Amino acid sequence: MRIAKILGSAAAIAALVGAGLAAPSSAAPAVPDAPPPIPADAVQVHLQQFQSIATANGGNRAHGRPGYRASADYVKGRLDAAGFTTTLQQFTHGGATGWNVIAEWPQGDANQVVFLGAHLDSVTAGPGLNDNASGSAAVLETALTLARTKPAVQKRLRFGWWGAEELGLIGSQYYASRLPAAERGRIKTYLNFDMVGAKNTTTWGVYTDNAGLRRQFEAHFQGRGIPTRGVNIAGRSDHASFARIGVPVSGITSGNDPCYHSRCDTITNVTAAVVATGATAAADLAWNLAGATR
Asked: How buried is residue 103: exposed, middle or buried, by Cβ count under 10 Å (0-12/13-18/19+)?
């Protein structure tokens, strides 16, 4: 009796489909998408640009200096050309004007935001290629890869480049502290990229702030045979500004180097292949967290 009913129902559905009154249920489910590996040549373009900006502006890209504004204009220009909705958020610190660069990809649920960020400024002592042109380049190329490949995303992807991090996380704190409560609740994840270009990196540091996000980063690196270690950098980079407002945070780092906060932190102090490894990890988590499909 049950079999007869099932067969009868199937026959009825088939008749409706044939008559054009019901849609067949053969549509293929959405397939998870993955970003392509980000090549070293792509991030090298950004690293070289940040070095050239520093060289033309007194040897640094620090808050309140012309090299910083030129860096922000470069990032914004690339994002504008790629189709992002971009904003320069102005703030003042120490009597000098600073800017955050915010970019949003206009797809996905605006009530569920996956946020990637890096600080854009250097110290006054040098051009800051590892700290932190490397992170800035990794996040920028992740955003540009999103614009080129255009996966369907369930969640909104947002990117930030922060000013005056070296003076105490000033830019990211300015941004996060001024978010309305409702907007804070929309940010589901913040991932930070600070110093991701150190030469001879063999083991990557993964922030320990959030166990679930840490496991996702570790799985990414494990799948590529790259060892990781847990690092707790607490309030020492921009993820702390988001943790303070209740956002789950994580990030990765290749570590610092002998040229940390020094004049010799130039383009010869970083390796583009290392930055590309960090950028590929950034893109992989961004696609996964945003529910990218094809």
From this structure: buried
